[in-house]
Amino acid sequence: MRTLLIGNTSYVTETFIQESFPQGEVFIFGDSDLDAGQNQNLTVVTPEQSLFNLTEILEAYDFEQVVFFSDHLSYKNPSAKSLVVLQEFLSILVAGKVSISKFLYLTGPQLQSNFPGLQELEADLLETLTEQPYKILHLPYLFSNWEQEAYFAKLLSQAQLRGRMEFAESEEQPALFIKLEALSSLVYRILDSWDNQVETLAWWPSAPATFGDLAAFLQKEEVLADLEVHFRGQEQELYQDLRGPRLMERYQWSEPAAILDLPVVAGLQTADQMALPLKATSSPWMDGLVLLVGALVAQGLQLLVAQQSFALSLSFPLLYLVLVAQARGIKKGFLALGLVVFLQLLLAQGQAMSLLNSAAFWIQLLAYVLATALAGYLQMQSLDRQAALQAEQAALLREHQALQENYRHVLEDRQSLRYQILSERGGFGYFATLFNRLAQAPGKTLFAEALSQLDTKIQAQKMGIYRFDQGLVTARLVAAIQEGMPEKMDLSVLPRVATRIQEGSAWVNVDLLAGYPAYAISIKPFGQVTYLLWIEGVDFQHMNLQESQQIEFFVQLLTFFLEREETGRRLGRVEGKE
Predict the structure, then answer these.
(1) Structure-model confidence comparison of residues 122 and 40, the more confident one
(2) Where are the alpha helices (DSSP H) in 166-315?
(3) If phi over 0 gives left and psi between -120 and 50 gives alpha, with beta otherwise, what is residue 480?
(4) Where are the domains of the chain?
(5) CATH of domain 2-147+176-205+238-260
(6) Which residues pair with 464 in a beta bridge?
(7) What residues form the membrane-spanning segments (predicted)?
(8) Cystine design at 562: which of 127, 366, 473, 525 (Cβ 3.0–4.6 Å)?
(9) Which CATH architecture has domain 428-577?
């Protein structure tokens, strides 16, 4: 059984394919991180790198079932790419170009809104399928182990700059995230127990996690453990609590035990983990103690310099503040500034008030503030540049992987000649269809059916088949694909064509002679020239060697069916005499 996966296929994993489609072949036409070379029953083609569109793929392969992944399976996904793909796919089905037995549409939770969105537009498109049975399955939002989803990538990038995780959602809002592998058995059971009903199914977790639970889950990661968490509660997603008890009863499917099972940090690349805020200590109290010790050392060195009367203008507290703000950020830099000022007042030995009334102290404090702010700003700019470089490196890496994948496909295609047999319009698929059509055509319509099939390949202005009456000079029209073909053909006025026909070879109008056909070749049942294939309105420059060979093969195939038809008539006459 051949299965086509289209749409938002970035979530598809090897485990999901093995559990959802244990038998048959799987064809992914979309973005994917899977390597088809490791699985002989898996083919992965990226639309941007493919020479063929979705229509040609569907016409080339006899798919029995199609699983469509909507963009709404991604949380806060503004893309309308799946809507375009769905529209193209449904137009192919409605036009009757292909036929499939199972169509499963996977989408995200249904939102409560008074304004129709992209999800509603996709649902309206599905209603255009009046004769094709399909099923809609609403699922929680999916999370990919390899792809940096827009929501989580933005969350972690902001955390590395601000030193805290900020959620625009409320702490009590449901966080409907799950991995696709947990739903593989459900997809398998629906396809395995398919019926010809158009219906909408849904699964809503009996105990959905909240964004508070999600934050706690993320803080289990070591690099995120010490980050502060803030919930603004400004963006609320209201869902329709769609529950499908039939999924458990009808398909005998059990709900996954673990809902929050998202290896967020582990799933990101090492470079992305290093871009998170520097984590020097494992405890906030220990972190503050380190800052205090540093402030004491800086103040002690400054007092030592002052007592020894060294001719140094270097300020150790100022150097300490610059280092802290540059390495730890502006927030920790101002915390260290407070410690430095506190220690200076503490070590003033009863002269704190006079120190506070001193203009030199406030000038020094202003210098500390400016230096700390400047160092913190430079640290933020450095993180921004680092994040931009990492994003650029990731884009280059994806481009390199795409080029490698494209090169691998080119090598495979050159070895197996896959692109020559991909569609019915070229290669063995075309001739298989031609053979079946001619085998089913009645005797009287054999010529008309043959010309009709050849017309899909050549698309000439005029084509006809003539039968020679006497000799190889005059011939009468038997069948034509276009109007205007003469009923009688006199080859005496076309000596070059007559010479080629008598020699038993094909005539090709290489010199573009006026009044001559573009192509002409004899049809010889039982070895005798009996018919003549006449083609006009095709420029020889646009008729390559492959097309010429295919016409010759077409003539041989038509000769075979003419011999079979004549043999059948002779056998019928013999049986009638007996």
Answers:
(1) 122
(2) 184-192, 211-218, 245-250, 264-267, 270-274, 284-308
(3) beta
(4) 2-147+176-205+238-260, 284-396, 428-577
(5) 3.40.50.720
(6) 480, 534
(7) 310-327, 334-353, 359-378
(8) 525
(9) 2-Layer Sandwich (3.30)
